[in-house]
């Protein structure tokens, strides 16, 4: 690898640090800890690196030349191999004569075998922050190589509260009782509900066009190309069917049948791989049934999209799906499931409960409206039955705009509008 190219990349990134305009996001980083930031493409991982660097510049604890910042999606580094990563430090030292840099490595999953270099950096007492757009970079094998020297942080598209912050809307203690402020929140929520939380799209005239382009990059770059998939058409079909199935538990067998009914053939093993590729790219996430056997928890799940803006690309009049999806996103932000720890579930045994969080004893139904009597009986009745069995749980129904306290058969349930619930649970 030509070190002159590396030097040019280092110098250009250093110039960008102070010029990049940021909306400060929550999430403090320890000054001496090392981090791996993961999440869907364009969620804000790179901006989080900029935020950390700018905070150090503002505090006077670092100068621009102290940062070794590399983005591995730079086409000039496309041919770099893992055994050449040491040249990053060599090039930096030729520029700054044996300084001990703060190291930021963006989208490092593009370099196969990167984890050994990352481990070596921490053993040499460098402070390192790494980002990636693929969950496989935190597989057990890689985590073992890193040796526990990095803290994982999941980076998500903007929450609704962050969306309001972006537009300068500050919510004081009693904001929901102020008609003008309440109306402003609801108006902004309508846009957020359909277009999602990718901050780069906020100032775009045609947000749908931008979201379509992003989806294509995730599909083709992060999934199809990375996993060397020959038939991308099946992948597109699978994504559409998953969008149609939001809200419903879906088995591998059912998805296989749906795909085969269109004339395409796919084996259960390949289908399982395809779904894992989607989760690895953070396009979708899944939650299991709280009361299912362990084997079914892995095969019969509810799947949701990482952002409402992407899900809405597939839907026409899909408000009920978007409503449950946006609740799932917010819960996933706080109670993210990992292969080693499940925290977020749905419940299906005699009654159906959309979301259950055992660690906080909370059961949540999602219903666009409670005005229809049959809907009211189904949603409230199911929750009452569940709460009689699980007496320690609190019951909530997230709606579009209904707010009321419901008392049925001695059980109290709180119905709350989604825009208020999102702000309260940020």
Protein traits:
single chain, 426 residues, alpha/beta, Rossmann fold, 2 domains, 6-stranded mixed beta sheet, 5-stranded parallel beta sheet, 16 helices
Account of the 3D structure:
α4 runs parallel beside α5. The chain folds into 2 domains: 3-154, Rossmann fold (3-Layer(aba) Sandwich); 191-424, no CATH class. The chain starts with a helix and ends with a helix. It contains 16 helices and 14 strands. Helix content is 44%, strand content 16%. With 426 residues, the chain is of the alpha/beta class. Strands 9-10-11-12-14-13 form a 6-stranded mixed beta sheet, sandwiched between helices. Strands 2-3-4-1-5 form a 5-stranded parallel beta sheet, sandwiched between helices. A 3-stranded antiparallel beta sheet has the order 6-8-7. The mean pLDDT is 93. It has helices spanning 3-17, 45-59, 86-96, 114-123, 140-146, 160-166, 179-195, 207-225, 232-244, 252-260, 268-280, 294-299, 308-311, 319-334, 373-389, 418-424, and strands at 35-38, 67-71, 102-106, 128-132, 151-154, 250-251, 284-288, 300-305, 345-348, 352-357, 362-366, 394-399, 404-408, 411-417.
């Amino acid at each position: 690898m030509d070190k002159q190219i590396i030097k040019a990349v280092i110098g250009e990134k250093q110039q960008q640090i102070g010029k990049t305009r940021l909306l400060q996001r929550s999430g403090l980083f320890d000054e001496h800890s090392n981090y791996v930031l993961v999440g869907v493409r364009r969620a804000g991982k790179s901006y989080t690196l900029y935020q950390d660097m700018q905070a150090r510049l503002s505090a006077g604890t670092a100068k621009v030349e102290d940062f070794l910042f590399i983005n591995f999606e730079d086409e000039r580094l496309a041919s770099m191999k893992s055994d050449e990563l040491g040249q990053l430090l060599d090039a930096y030292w030729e520029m700054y004569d044996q300084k001990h840099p703060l190291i930021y490595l963006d989208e490092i999953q593009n370099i196969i075998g990167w984890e050994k270099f990352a481990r070596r950096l921490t053993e040499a007492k460098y402070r390192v922050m790494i980002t990636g757009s693929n969950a496989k970079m935190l597989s057990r094998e890689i985590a073992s190589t890193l040796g526990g020297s990095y803290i994982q942080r999941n980076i998500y598209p903007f929450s609704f509260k962050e969306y309001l912050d972006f537009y300068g809307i500050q919510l004081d203690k009693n904001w929901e009782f102020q008609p003008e402020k309440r109306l402003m929140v609801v108006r902004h929520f309508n846009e957020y509900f359909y277009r999602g939380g990718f901050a780069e799209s906020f100032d775009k005239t045609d947000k749908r066009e931008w979201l379509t382009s992003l989806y294509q990059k995730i599909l083709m770059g992060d999934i199809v190309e990375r996993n060397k998939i020959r038939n991308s058409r099946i992948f597109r079909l699978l994504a559409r069917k998953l969008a149609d199935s939001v809200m419903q538990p879906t088995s591998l067998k059912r998805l296989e049948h749906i795909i085969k009914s269109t004339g395409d053939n796919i084996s259960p093993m390949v289908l399982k791989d395809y779904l894992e590729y989607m989760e690895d790219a953070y396009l979708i996430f899944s939650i299991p049934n709280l009361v299912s056997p362990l084997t079914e928890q892995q095969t019969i799940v509810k799947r949701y999209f990482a952002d409402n803006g992407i899900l809405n690309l597939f839907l026409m009049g899909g408000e009920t799906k978007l409503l449950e999806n946006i609740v799932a996103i917010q819960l996933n932000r706080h109670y993210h499931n990992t292969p080693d720890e499940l925290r977020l579930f749905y419940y299906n045994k005699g009654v159906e409960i959309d979301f259950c969080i055992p660690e906080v004893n909370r059961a949540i139904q999602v219903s666009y409206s409670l005005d229809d009597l049959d809907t009211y009986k189904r949603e409230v009745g199911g929750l009452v039955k569940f709460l009689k069995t699980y007496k320690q749980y609190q019951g909530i129904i997230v709606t579009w705009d209904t707010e009321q306290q419901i008392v049925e058969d001695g059980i109290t349930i709180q119905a709350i509008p989604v825009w208020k619930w999102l702000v309260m649970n940020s």
